[in-house]
Every structure is written in C-alpha cells, then in structure tokens.
Amino acid sequence: MSEKHGIPHLIHQTWKNEDVPHEWRDWSESWRRHHPDWGYRLWTDSDNRAFLEEHYAWFLPVYDGYREPIKRADAIRYFLLDHFGGLYVDMDFECLRPMTGLFAGKELVLGLEPEAHTQLPVSRRGGMRRIVCNAFMASRPGHPFWAHVHRQLVGAHTRPGPLDATGPFFLTRAVDSAPEGCSPAVLAADTLYPKLSPAAAELCGPREADPERAHAVHHWSGSWDREGSGATGTPTGRKVGFWTSQDLQPCAHGTVDLDAQRRRWAAGSPAPTVSCLMVTKDRLPLARRAIRCFLAQTYTRAELVVVDDGADTALEDHVRDLADERIRLHRLPPEGRTLGELRNIAVDLATGSYVCQWDDDDLYDPERLEVQLAAVLALGATACFLARERLWWPARRKLAVSGVRVWEGSMLCAKEALPRYPEQRRGEDSPVAEAVVRGGRTVSLDAPELYTYVFHGANTFDEPHFTSLFDAATQLWPAGGAYADQVYAMAARLPLDPADVLEAETAPENTAADTAEDTAQATAGNTADPPAPVPHARRTAPVDVRANAEEAEDAADAEEHPPLLVLTPVKDAAAFLPRHLDNLRALDYPRQALSLGLLEGDSSDGTWQALQDALPALEADFRRVTLVRRHFGLGLTGPRWARGVQRQRRSALAMARNHLLSCALADERWVLWLDVDVTECPADLVQRLLAARQEIVVPHCVTEPGGPSFDLNTFVLHPDADALDWDRWLRDGILQPPRGFGRSYLDELRGHEMVRVDGVGGTALLVHADLHRDGLVFPAVPHRRLIETEGLAALAQDMGVGCWALPGVEVVHPAHWGGGPLSQAGEAAAGGESRDIGRR
C-alpha cells in the first residue's frame, strides 16, 4: 500500500486550552518521543469549533447543542480523522513503542477495551458484548467509515448520555452497522488497552500489561470528569443520564420552544410555505386519513401536493368535494412509474420553499409541521429529521417508540437543498436523506409522537422489516391496558379508524410466547433509553367513537370555518346600509362563525338610528354584534379627495378603525374590514380570501365588474421606485403622488392569481386577528410617510409580515359613489360617546 493511501504520520490530541495539566504532559510527550518525525497538533476547544465551521458547518447545530463538553470532545475526533487522517489519542494514553509497524498495510485502526469492561453494570444495561473505544483511533483521510459515523452522530445526538451519544458505546454500534467495505481493523485489548479501568479492576481484580504485546496503555484517569475537559475516557464513572420530562419534549439544540416561535410568527417573523408531498395509488381510505392529518395541522401556511397514478378516480372526487385550495391533486396514468419518479414529480409541483414527506399510510400529529419548522428556523438549519418515531401495528395490537436513527419519512427540508430521488421502487428516500444530512445543517428532533409509522399489511416494506423495527424499539406497549391507554391518547389527536379504538383492549391474535416476548421487551432490553411518554398526547377518558357525532362535526366545521369578525366604520351611510347588510347576509360563510362590528360617527342623516333599528335582526342572524358610536369632530368644507384634507381625514379614519377594533375584537381568528359603500362582493369572498393562506390579503376593488381599480391604496411599487423623486409629492407629512407615479395597481396585474403588494386599501381587507392583537394598527400619524391603511401595510412590513392581493377576486365600488380613491366609509368616523351592544 502506498503512503498516499496509508495512515498519515500525524498525531492529534485535544484539550480545552493550551494549558495541559502537569500529570498528563509526560504521557502526551511519550507520543512525540516515539514518533520524532511525525507531526503533532493539540486542538483546543476554540480550534475545534473553528475547524467545524470551516469544513463541517452542517454539523454545528448538533455540536453546539451538546450539553456536556465531553460530547463535543468525543465528536470532534471523528471529523479530524476524516479530514486530516492520522492518529488520535486521549491525553491519558501512554505510548510504549512506535506505531509505524502496527499501522503497516492498514487504513483504519481501532481498539477493543478489555472484556472485563463488558461486565460492568453500565455496559450490561447497554447490551454491550464488546466495546470499541474511541480513545485511540488511526485512519487515512476520507475513509468512508467516517461518513457513516457522521450520519450516526446526527441520529444519536439526543441519546441520554455521552456513552451512547458520542462515546465508546456509540462507536461500537457504528462499527457493528458499518456498510460493507468500510469496516476497520479492530485490535485486541492487550495491544492498546492492557490495563483495566479502576471499576473493572475492583470487580474482576487487577491485571498487569503484557510488555510483549502492548504498544500503548490507557491509564483510565477519568479525564472526562474534569471541568471543561477536552479529553474522554472509559465507561467507568461516567454518569448514564436519563432524559428529564422536559428533555423528552421536542428538542434539537436544547429544547424547541414552540410557543416562542409562535409568538415570533405572530409578531411578523417570516412564516414560509411548506409543501407536503404525498404519493398514492388506489388506497383511498389511507389517503383520506393522511389528508385529514394535513387539514388538522396547526401550521396553516402549507399545501398538500398529491400525486396519484392509480386507476381509481375516487380520490380525485374526494379532493374536489373538500374544495380546499391548499390540496392540489395531480393525476397520472397508471404506467408503473417508480416511487422515486413519482416523488420527483411531486417535488417539481411544490410551490413552498420547504418540502415535507407525507406518506399516505402514516399518521401525523397536528403540530408536526409547526414543531419541525420551528426547529429548522430556530437553528438556521437546512432540514429536520425525527430521531425516533412511533410504531403502530394495529393487527397485532402493538405500539412502540422506535430506536434512534435518521427517519427518512420524517424529513422536512429546504426545497433548494433536496437532491433528486433515485428511480427506485422502494428505499428511494434513504440516499436522499443521507445526502441532505451530509450536505447541510441538519436538526435531529426527538419527538416520536409527531409521526406514527403504521404497518397495515400492504406497506412498501414487508412484515420482517417491521418486526425488526419493533425488536429495536426503545419502548413497547403490547396488548392490554398499556396499549389501550396509548391508543386512546392517540385518538385524542389523530384520525384513527374507529375500529382500532373500539378494539384497543381486545387481545391480539398472537401466541402466549409472543405475548411473553413482548412483555419482556417492554420491561427489559434496550434499557439505554428510558420509557418514553407521549409528550403531546393529552390524557383523556376512553373515547366513545359512536357518540358525540354532532360535536365532532361542529369541531371539524370550526376548524374549516374559523371565527371571523367583519368591521365597518360609517358616517352619513343611511343610504348605503340596506345594501351593506344584504351583502353581509349573502355571504355563504357560516353565520355561527361570523361576527359584526360597526362604528358610527359625525353622521347627520340618521345613520345611528338606522343601525339601532337593524340591531335586533343582526343579533338574530350573526354570532355576535358590536355597535359603537364615537365622534371625532371631523368637518370638511371641501371635497374629501382634496390633497389638503387627506392628513386630517385619514387620521380620523385611522383612529375610528383602531377604536372599533379595540371595542369589537373578542375571540375571532380573523378580521375582515369591509366598507359600507361596496355594492357587490362575491358570496364566497371570505373563503377566497382565507384560501390565500396569508395573514394580510385584499381583493381587487373595481369601479365595475372587470373595470379599472377603484381603491388605489392597494399598489405595487415599480422596480425603480427608490430612484424616483418622491419628496415633491409629500404634503402634510404623507405621500400623495398622482395615479401611476412609481406604482402599479391591480387592474394592471390581472392574470396573476396572487401578488405581493406594498400598500393596501381598506375597502375590503382581511387581517389575521393575532396581528392586530400584537400591535398592528392603522397609523393615525405618518409612518414612513404613509397613513391609515397604507401605513398599516408599512407597519406590517416592519413586523416582517407581507401584504398580498388577489387581482382576480373583485368587489365593486362604483366610481360615482366615492368620487376618489377612498370610499364613502373612508370619510366616516369621528369621537365621543361609545356604546357596546348585543354581545352574543
């Protein structure tokens, strides 16, 4: 073997800084003394992180997330040897003779700890039949074994203690699972580890080193136990940690704080679209269940892309009946395409910046997308995989939590970082997951309740494969009370088949031997991991799936039709009220989900009396009605569109809107601002605005159907807008440019389904209620030289929230009714008496 392919003459050691403790200096010097022509490098903690940042930045979220320094000290050596090659040895290792002959003809050399170490309690609990120690390792650079180790690190980093996450137990399992052709040469214990650790010596009696065979000796000084140590040692004395209840919550870099991320989203932090990709074929019941899981997701900025190459059209009919624009079905002729081909087609159809695998036969917790995306965003990562999943075998009445690995089906990944799937009929997602883990910053999230892998008998992989997963499970609930309790907890969150719930306590049709084996596995074996609760599952009374059908339908309807509040400020609007109220009653949004709020001010035409007269009928028709009166003393002597009155007029309107909002908003999820002088709006206006899945969205306000734009406060800035002289159109502190100056309007953007806009009008404006609750108001004074609805758009952008418009969804405001870019309701409103009536 040429020197080029051998182990380089380079020695690596690590310590927290350059001040190595005195008692280890002689041992460290022994390596340089026996290898005078070899290079030597002492790596400090700061060196280690800088090295990773330069060469393996994708691993930093895991590396920085290790709570114990020993885990970082363990992990770094696997990357140093991959990049540089050479020999890594711990500080408490003493060299007895040169290694050159020992390494001759080898590319990767590891060593076994003494057999007596396998008899220690910690080793027996871990099921270790041998222990490959990571205190001495030698390798050529780029050996394929290290790529395998890196993948295993990602999957194991949430395991409870250093032994299993990064240390000797971890390395032993990596050696045992190494792909063909990259296994190391493993030296016997008397070559490198002739001395027993103190705990093993106490258990088995001391043992002297054989000077004829030993090339080095590990002194088992327990250097890992020193504060801030950069070295590692033996299982002896290491604390085998167990996860606390908090640690068992979804965690990546520490713990993912979902509530904090929700607050960031509510405050305007970007919320990217996630495309869930589902490939299916003639499995209607399973596909419908997977769709129900999607519709229940708490993260709503998502789409479900369904690729169906089956002969049956039933799924297409089902999706059409759902009429949810987030679900896009793409049918293909049944031409026998591979699963890899079909997945690539789904990726190509995805419009989101993130994609998420959504297999048709598995179950997904409602918080799956929200938690995984929160983990990705919190760590600036490329992708998130689950470290463990829940395993369910309904026919056997078996439920388990899997072992730790990178679970391919759990992937949520930036679309731009996703490689193409190979054209394979099964196993196509494994190389993709491997490439994602190797190619970017990846989060391994230990939240098994988010994904339930179901064996139903027609899976891509067969029964022996699923049996092997149960054999490696970290927790098992066999048939009986424990299984039933877990199924009931699942039923509280997931759309289970009623038969599975009703039969949860029925004994499975397996033998007594099977039951005994399951019970043994549930109480023994795999003890390196503690029993895992289901963090998100809420304990409930047994579920009666045959009762409360009406309540279930109501709950589903509430999810599909969230409570919405329509707000309208009015002034001198008596002539417009009948048409406005007719338009509200014509909306086909469920009345039990629709509330109203109206504010009247400064009217002289009987508007307030007309509202009071209409109130009883409104209270009978709608969920809740709030009627407010407040005067602002706004009196205009000239045309309301005159430039000289815009600051005064729109400031009063902004205050009216804000006051109405503060009086009327209760538990509603959405607010629709709708002016009183809109003459026509589609019956499905609310649904079409909600279907945009944006937090701020406006329809196209036109002077007549298909006509020019009326509300010119909704606009898109021209690409060269920053170079224009806006100052000459500044009047009273607000911009008042002529039509078309630096701005495009929606009548110029017809043909676009949805466009991002820089300003919004209030003729019809949908806003997520949480944005209002978090401080998004209508500025009554100039904000970035804009005011009222335009100012709201600017303020939203400052909060990180985009504003969107639907050019093809039209509401009509006749030009002769308004005489300018603001509606009659835009004049409304001005301050004093306040009255809140008719809360239901």
Detailed description of the structure:
This protein folds into three domains: 3-225, Spore Coat Polysaccharide Biosynthesis Protein SpsA, Chain A (Alpha-Beta Complex), CATH 3.90.550; 258-555, Spore Coat Polysaccharide Biosynthesis Protein SpsA, Chain A; 561-827, Spore Coat Polysaccharide Biosynthesis Protein SpsA, Chain A (Alpha-Beta Complex), CATH 3.90.550.10. It is built from 29 helices and 32 strands. The chain has 840 residues and is α/β, with parallel strands linked by helices. The strands form seven sheets. It has an eight-stranded mixed beta sheet with strand order 23-22-21-24-31-25-32-30, sandwiched between helices. A seven-stranded mixed beta sheet has the order 11-10-9-12-17-14-18, sandwiched between helices. A six-stranded mixed beta sheet has the order 2-1-3-6-5-7, sandwiched between helices. The protein is 33% helix and 17% strand. Helix 14 (314-322) links the parallel strand 10 and strand 11. The termini are far apart. It is elongated and about 110 Å long.
